[in-house]
Fold this sequence. Notes:
- The protein is mostly helical.
- The chain has one domain.
- It is built from three helices and no strands.
- The radius of gyration is 18 Å and the shape is flat.
- The protein starts with a helix and ends in a 5-residue tail after the last helix.
- The relative contact order is 0.15.
Amino acid sequence: MNAKHLGTYVNDHLAGSVAALELLDHMISANAGTPRGQFFIELRQEIEQDQAALRDLLEQLDFRENPMRKAVAWFSEKFARAKLSMEARRVISWPAWKNWKR
Length: 102
């Protein structure tokens, strides 16, 4: 793999970690005080460590972080969370609609 492709690859993973941290912040808040919440806190810490390693690698390769990729990842996480929220409401409300006829 040439250096340009490696820089793109690392930037993609860094952007993915931005989305993961955003989602984990929500999951930590939604599961505060539970074992699941603690798991999400620990996972978030691991991803932060991964981000530091990815940033170091980009620096060693003489690449810069791609702010556009990070912005798209941030927006994608917000969209995915909204979609999941709508899906959850649809599933929860399904029994009320199951006998509905047109």
